[in-house]
Amino acid sequence: MLAASVTIVAGSAPAAPLPEPRATALTRQLQAIVDDPAMPLPGLAVVAIRHGEIAYRQHFGSKRLAGGGKPAQPIDGDTMFRIASVSKFVTALGAMKLVEQGKLQLDADIGDTLGYRLRNPHFPDQPITLRMLLTHTSSLRDEGGFKFAPEVDLKDVLLPGGRQYGKGAMWDGAHAPGAWFEYVNFNWGLIATVMEAATGERFDRLMRRLIFDPMGLKAGFYLAEFAPARIDDVATLYRKREKDGDEAWDPKGPWIAQADDFGNEAPAAPPGLAAYKAGGNGTIFGPQGSLRISTGDLAQIMLMLMKRGQLDGKQILAPQTIDTMFSRQWTLHAGGANGSANGDGGSYRGLYHAWGLGNQQFTDTSIVKDGHAGGDRLVEDGGFKGIGHLGWSWGLNALFVFDPSANDGMIYVSTGVGADPDRQPGQFSSEARFQERITNALYCGAIVTRHGMSQCSLP
Distance between CA atoms of 215 and 310, rounded to whole angstroms? Predict the structure, then answer.
């Protein structure tokens, strides 16, 4: 059994801790999820916010498992995680700050900022805008790749005739920019590049200046510039399957490191970075999925947004910027008329129903079709709608979501999975069952009031 850390930490926010019996019961529930032999988790960190105050924060398991003669290292409040696509939400905060400052415009042709005419060659008269990138309606696709070496200029990837253009697989030939939703990582690489072009600053350093440093966050997109002590805080990600290839899962086998195995090898700068010029290729910093940050610092971001852009007396984002960011931009029409509902990228088995600017909007929709559950519902009996983002990569699973009307929120990060999540589907959503169990436990155990507990089906 993986040991749980038992200290409840409130961070710098006003604390509203759960009564001890309820906190103990929630910790026991989450520990049982971590230890479930059907889907063991090497580590888990969670935060629950109720009415704008941290009610519960807990860590379970290890940021680095025992091996090579070294003991396991437990997850603690300083542990940072590569939070996969939750990174997109944070990147969007930086992009919206530049909009607020007038350095970017949501509906301007991004080619004017990049310095070259950018069009989907199948729709040459339609400009591509920052709004389209932030809402996954740009007509870009990941089939042509979404992360490129520092020496590659995205101009050579995106424009016909470019050295990296190939067969043009990065462009949708059937749907024009602006209407059709398809979740695409490459959108965020281009967002980072536009941010660089608008400021002349490297994306990772720009995000520090715009968001991380003003908030006092120990977070970043580029680990080779972190101090060694901070690198040691980064959790390794694990699965019980080989890192590469199509090897089968082995739930009874050993944990295998998938990413951020810095106990064995320190991060290094990619070749060619020294000669990199900002504005050419922001994909190298992983704006779509490579942010390392702790759950405590994610909670500070959530609290800042709940407080209309303020944190510790500083105005990080203007209230109107937050309103614009969270305004509904795309809603899935019946039958997937503006984005596929068949699981091929448009809505991912019914998971995506609505989108803001860089954020998923959870509509509390649950679908059962042909005996299979789907939808974006977060808690079993419903009742929680929110704004945020999911993340999964290399075994990591993460959620950052809050209800701005009630200022209730949930954050979790698991550092790996011990079995194939696709073989353990959810009962009321498109998520895997273990993900449903985590969010249901947090909601029922830390957010719903004692009088409302009858709304919950506890895991």
Answer: 9
CB contact at 8 A, 284 and 82 = no
Residues 6+ apart with CB under 8 A from 24: none
pLDDT at 96 over 70: yes
pLDDT of residue 342: 53
- Assigned token pair, 270: 């990619």
pLDDT band at 8 (very low <50, low <70, confident <90, very high): very low
Give the pLDDT confidence score for residue 456 in this predicted structure: 66
Rg, the chain, Cα only? 21
- Residue type at position 457: S
Contact 249, 240 (CB under 8 A): yes
**For 344-355, what is each residue's pLDDT tens digit?**
455 567 799 999
> How far, CA to CA in Å, does 99 sit from each of 96, 178, 185, 413?
5, 19, 21, 30
pLDDT in tens, 239-253: 999 887 667 899 889
Place of tokens 């009307």: 405
Q: Which residue has better confidence, 422 or 264?
A: 422
H or E stretch at 1: none
Summarize the confidence of residues 215-221 as an average pLDDT.
95
Considering all CA atoms of the chain, what is the largest pairwise distance in Å, rounded to the nearest integer? 66
Read off the tokens for 372: 């299979």
pLDDT at 343: 46
**Average of per-residue pLDDT across 74-90:** 97
CA 85 to CA 114: how far, in whole Å?
Answer: 24
Which backbone phi and psi does 236 adopt, to 5 degrees?
-80, 145
Structure tokens at 435: 């993900």
First to last CA, the chain: 19
- Which helix (H) or strand (E) segment is 57 a member of? strand 53-64
Whether pLDDT at 105 is above 80? yes
CA–CA separation, 183 vs 397, rounded Å?
17
Q: Which two tokens stand for residue 422?
A: 């696709």
CATH topology of domain 92-201: Beta-lactamase (3.40.710)
Determine the length of the chain: 459
Asked whether 360 and 329 are in contact (CB, 8 A), the reply is: no
| CA 143/CA 304 separation, integer angstroms | 36
CA–CA separation, 284 and 169 (whole Å)? 20
Range 177-195 average pLDDT: 96
Our CA angle for 185, 190, 195, nearest 5°, is 130
Helix (H) or strand (E) holding 30: helix 20-35
- Domains of the chain: which residue ranges? 1-71+231-269+385-459, 92-201
Residue 227, CA atoms < 13 Å, CB-side half-sphere:
3
